[in-house]
């Protein structure tokens, strides 16, 4: 199979997308990979798979590559003798953060009829925004951590007992996130978060909370990863998460009993089906008093959470054969015809 | 000002978008109009403003027009001597239903840096889906009509007293909507709705409910339309709404007292600001016992609800000067540089 890896994007996570993309060479070994880079200016470039490395991008050397145009049915190179369609079977959307996770790439692929692995438009819009993720989870009967929502111009206060955690609603990879130990620190944490976003959520910071990650997808059946208990520090800052995005070796399952495992898997399935069909996502859960609560949805997880699966490459191939199809809408101009007839014009 | 009217789309409302677009010639008289048609196959065509009429599309004759390619910064015609950018100041998104209202067009304009009047991506995703509109309204403190949500595979039952109204969650213009008078009719109504969508909402059908429409936008100040009491029948079916989309003459304000008017305007402002900045929307409200409840958001109202405004053309021009800007994200490759340094490669 020929998989086009779409990466980069106009995103704070542009660089970690490059790291995720390069990692795919180590985990998709049997497939042919076609690398399509979206630069900071949102232009498309065809990157030589043999030569891909991070310096190609940081040095600007990628601009010597062929540029690509997005048109009906695919990406095209333009040459002397017209345009030529780039050959691949499916796009794997690996753009973290803005563009990739907010629904823009999904919209582009959908509009131009390109088969793609990624959350679709609605799934993206709801999971990119942590406030909307709360609405979604609650409507599906999945518990979440309590929260308060503040907009930029709202009064800066919280009724939550400290410590709390302040998060911009729309960013991933812990960007702009702060733990606030008492009221004196709140203002600064909000300044930081509002640098990145117009809206923030404030949640209780639960010291020593048990955290478990579950990734997976639905092909023609459920393909769920092991449940991972992520390495815990106070919380992962950007640089640590960044390194984390290049992971390619498998980890061990969390040491949890079957009951808890099933609870986590059930919560994952409720979130995933049907909204996230066509994508591989990772859900991060908190467990407090045996109660499973959704913390975050990672719609494009770092290096696609490959290290949590036994047969990641096989799953990607199966998923590409079971992508959701948008409804065909037949346009027959029956209303315009009937109006023209009524007017005596037809 | 040169306004590019983007219309058509792969949507059940493709034909009414054509009607809306043609109506703009009568209401945007001082502006230069550039017509960009999105055909059923999602290809772009430049339509001659002097020759536009509905038959051009129903006959397929539009295919003799110049085709357009969407690239960074605009729409381009391709010719012998390279590509030429189409000249206009702003796009007015007039695609009703799928593509236009679901966030795809917003994504395309945003991605390719084209200034546009339309709800942005998040606003589109939330208002295109009537279930998500409920979440949104409730989170903003705006009341809505009660509802139940059914997915295609759920058990077909409701606890609501009859009569009820069954609506597909994602369509406009009353497509797939039924009024259900008793339990014996429910199954058929659900069959109809599930023809169009995977999800429906069921609401009480409130006989004789007072309905009021409020349109508007925020330029550098609030520009709200008159409050309209729409012509009521049992409910508007598709053909009646269709004819309604070609309206271009002003209507009279509803005969309501100042208190109710202010309640309606306040509810509109809560919904609009800040999510819908950059767009002209119409909100349809029900009033029961002086309580204002959001019925629907029309993110791209028929003929842009021009008939509700005193100075529609002036407002569009002012709005085009006050469009929201996406945050610039500077990509400086500092993480990649620092990793390269750590590895001794730089």
Structural commentary:
The structure is a homodimer of 346-residue chains. With 346 residues, the first copy, chain A, is an alpha+beta fold. The first copy, chain A, folds into 3 domains: 2-118, Rossmann fold (3-Layer(aba) Sandwich); 125-143 and 207-320, 2-Layer Sandwich (D-amino Acid Aminotransferase, Chain A, domain 1); 158-204, ATP-grasp fold, A domain (Dna Ligase, domain 1, 2-Layer Sandwich), CATH 3.30.1490.20. Chain A is built from 10 helices and 17 strands. Chain A has helices spanning 14-27, 54-58, 104-111, 121-128, 130-139, 186-196, 238-244, 258-272, 312-320, 334-342, and strands at residues 2-8, 32-38, 44-47, 66-71, 74-79, 82-85, 90-93, 116-117, 143-144, 148-151, 164-168, 178-180, 199-204, 210-218, 222-228, 281-288, 291-298. In chain A, the strands form 3 sheets. Chain A has an 8-stranded mixed β-sheet with strand order 6-5-4-3-2-1-7-8, with helices on both faces. A 5-stranded mixed β-sheet of chain A has the order 9-17-16-14-15, covered by helices on one side. Chain A has a 4-stranded antiparallel β-sheet with strand order 10-13-11-12. In chain A, helix 4 (121-128) crosses helix 5. The termini of chain A are far apart. The mean pLDDT of chain A is 92. Chains A and B meet through helix 1, helix 2, strand 4, helix 3 and helix 4 of A and helix 1, helix 2, strand 4, helix 3 and helix 4 of B.
Q: Give the second-level CATH assignment, the architecture of the largest domain in chain A.
A: 2-Layer Sandwich
- Structural Rg of chain A: 22 Å
User: Which segments of chain A are poorly predicted (pLDDT under 50) over 5 or more consecutive residues?
Assistant: none
End-to-end C-alpha gap of chain A = 51 Å
